[in-house]
Amino acid sequence: MNMFIDIADIYLKSGRGGDGSVSFRREKYVPLGGPDGGDGGKGGDVIFEVDPDMTTLLDFKYKRKYVAEDGVNGGASKCYGRAGENLIIKVPMGTVLKDKETGKIIADLSKRDSRITVLRGGKGGKGNAKFATPTRQAPDFAEPGMPAEDRTVTLELKLLADVGLLGFPNVGKSTLLSKVTKATPKIANYHFTTLTPNLGVVSLQGINPFVIADIPGLIEGAAEGVGLGISFLRHIERTRLLVHVIDISGIEGRDPYEDFLMINEELKKYDARLASRPQIIAMNKSDLVYDESIFEDFTKKVAKLGYTDIYRISGATGSGVDELLKACAKKLSEIPVEETLYTVDDFFIPEEKHFTYEINVDEDGVFVVSGTFVDRLLDVVNVENPDSLRYFHKVLKNKGVLDKLKEMGIDDGDTVRLRNFEFEFYV
Q: What is the pLDDT of residue 140?
């Protein structure tokens, strides 16, 4: 059985950058040759791409952690470290990637050739050969590789169907789908039969083929997450046209018009854009109706609400089905394909983690600089070495730390602390 999994959380981590090397040429009669430490390699990226042959997120139910390869450290003789291999993760078409923490969208992989880099590998650190200058001819420090990025993401699969079959459980959607496509859904006479969406391609002579989806049954309260509600609604977000299947026979004691109102109310609660999608109404099980006034009464009521595309069909006998499908094809030819369903506010914007710092003044009047920038800088610097210390001050100046200290009112002779290293400030 092909189990349908449409949502999964996974942990991702890119590769760390390789460290730069501290090395000096060893030549006969030259006890300390020039610096020749090579750069570290870049860490691997984490990339998602669409695999058109995948239909579920089942793989992600069993494997939840994905880590790209680290970059290799630099070596002597200016040998550069090898870059870490990128990690390519294949997902089905229609997968939406969301940041787990914020729920914001990272990417919508809704096209056959969709591909996105979600996490970038850390940059490789420079070897000491790169820090040599005419006045600093033997630097004994190198850069460490940049750290990896990590994130937990939620994968959501949203079906890419042109037409969604809308309706209460047991109104005959699965029977209709099996009649009009080669899909073979399991059909039984009880509610919540269809627990996973079924897709089929409608291919009828004289019309353009289109994809139709029978989606899990909807019940009152779906927009609040009752029953299968939210997972149902997720799958019809992309459909351009809804076919609302009604059991016009009322054979189970339900009122067809009340059912129609209830489902449209759920759509409005979930997403007003969904509720405004064009709807064609299919009065199914019409072969079981012997009183013509039932059709007339229902048609008049929905016409007052603005719904005029109404067809009598029987999924069991096939009566009226071709007319319904031709109406769908005509309607689809008139509806533009939306490129996106999202606004700018829906999208995730990653924070820059690697060069953040903050400055606070403690009770002794010491200016304390802390943050990821500080950790990285002190990993590079040898504070006992004058050349390295000059480099340290240059970085503080270039990154705006010294200007920020001046803004905060620092005076000559005041103490600045970075982690466990302190120095006196002078302009």
A: 79
